[in-house]
Structures are given as C-alpha cells and as structure tokens.
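ok so i was messing around last nite and threw this chain in just to see what happens. nothing serious, just curious
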Amino acid sequence: MKKAVLLMVTLVLLLAVPVVSGASSLSVNEAMNEPNGTDVTVGGYIVGVPVSTSTVQQSNFTSDYALALADDPSETQMSEMIFVKLDAGYRSEYGLMSNPSNLGDYIVVDGTRDDYFAHEGVESVTSISRDAAEDPGTPGTGYYADAEGLTGVALKQALHNIIDDHQEISYANAWEALRNTDEDPNNSNNVLLLYTGKSISKYDNGGLIDEWNREHVWPQSKGDFGTVMGTGTDLHALRPTDVTVNSSRQNLDFDNGGRIHPEAPDTFYDSDSWEPRDEVKGDIARMVFYMAVRYEGDAGEVDLEVLDQVDVAGPYLGKLSTLKEWHEQDPVDAFERNRNEVIFDAYQGNRNPFIDHPEYVEAIW
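result:
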C-alpha cells in the first residue's frame, strides 16, 4: 500500500514539472530587444566581424574574436546586427579571419545577452551550431519535407515536384527583376555582371557595347525554348551579362580550358566550351542543376538533362563532372543566398534546392 501511494505521489510530481523541449531560437531582432543578463538562444546569418564601436568588417577580415549576426544574409546596417563574442574554443571553427567561407552561414548561438563594443551582443557563449532546421532561408522540414531521406532519381523527382509550380514572368519583366536579384550589395544603383564581375548601372541595359543584357545560363538553343515564359524566363538561370561577353559565350557548354576572353580576363573559352571566373563557377553549376531538375518534360515543357560531355545536339548541357567540381570548389555565398531569397519572396515563389542544400548534388549525380 505504501509503495502504491509513493508511486502516485511521484507521478503527480513528475506531471507537475514542465518539460522543456526544442524551443526555437530568437531572431536577431528579437534577441537585441532582450535585457542584458538574459540567457538567449539566437539564430542568424554571419554577416561580418565587429572590430570597433563603429566598424563591422564584411570582407578582408582581420580578427577571429567576434561575429556579427543578422536576420538578412545581405545586411549591411550595424543597427540590424547583434555581436557575438567568440571565446578561444570557437575561434578556429567560426572566426571569419580563419574561415572566410563562413560568411553568410546560418548559425544558432546559446549565450548571455550582454553588450559588446557598446552594442547589443551575446557573450559567455555555451554553444554554437549550424542548425539547418532553424534556418528561415532553408525551409528544411517544411519546403523540402517530401525530399527527406531520398537519393538518386527519387530525390530528383521529389525536388522537381517541390519547385515546378511557381509564378512565371515575361521576358520583358525580367529586366526589372534582374535589377533586384543581382543588385550590387555595395552600390544599390548597380548590378553585378556574371562573367566579368563588373558593377554597372542597373539602367545600362540593352544591346549596345558595354551595356548588359539577359544571359541564359542554360542556352536557349539547348532545348529550343527561346524566351517562352517559364523555361526561357526562369530567374534562377537568368543573369545580367556584358553584351559582348554574352555574345562570345553563345551556346557553349561548360568545361575547363581555352583562350582568355579579352573583356573577361578570368574567363576562358574555345570552340565547344566556356570556363567562367572562379568566383562564379559554383553559382553556374547550381543554376544548371536547378534547370535540369525543374524542367523534366511534363506539362509540355522541354526535358533538360546534364551530360558528362560537351557539344551534344538537343536539350543537353555539359560537362557534368566539371560542373560537380565547380560546385565543390566555389561554395554557396551570401550573394547567391540573397538572390535565392529575392526570387522566392518577390517573383517566382520557388527556390534553387542546390543553394539551400548543396549536398543534393552528390545525392542525385
């Protein structure tokens, strides 16, 4: 009898104790409004290194001692950032001087709200993790739920089903869209050109020398889709490009080698292939992989496929092995992530899965 009473009392006590499990992290904006001394879990994008009360380095990093986090991976305003002090145990993995490729990554930080450089901050950090499920830019268990656990053809089909139903825009409207998707983060009046990397006025567009036009990364002739809404106007594979350089690229496949292009010094080309500058090789690979998944031949659309060869007639683009190498050599960066967000939020309502989940490339090909 005593044992039974003791068991009942124990159960009542257990039920009276609240169970804490898996609380989601605060946004940067929410964490900034928490009072000093509060234990917080904050998730945000790494956008720079705070080095003084007035300076956040967003390139050419000189310190591993702290990070600036923001809710927007392309944020440049210090007022929208929270500073995270990195103790010695976190610097080698998360410090931007040692790991500049971490810029733009989404992390979740546990620590205490306390000002750093007289600015809203987090100190006494107890853990830092890269939590994709928390990342608002990587829908994870929501947007990609139907792809979880799949590989090969099954994964490719699942991703196609996820991204194929989206808003389509006209080719004429693509001009204005590209002014937003490819805006220079350091000059809001300009766009960045894909192959040359030059920053020029958003409104210097057209067909004249030194203007920019709309480059189909997957050439229109590789499937004969022209500028039809959808395949020919998909913003995930349209980029601003110097008119002359675009003309030289024509419908060449992607591969290494060739002679240097006179107007794009880090670009090489020959009779059957095009090698862009190193800084955008991964961007191009992920755009090609997107097109091969989005356009599978259903609903009357052309079936685009990536081949491990070049100069093949039909809706085919290569070279698969080279594109996979480029994908690894040039990881996803903040510009790509922001571009993906703008297309998703403002125009098409779909995403490039290979920006959100780079591991999908190897899982399919």
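not much to say yet. Residues 222 and 315 are 4 Å apart (CA to CA).
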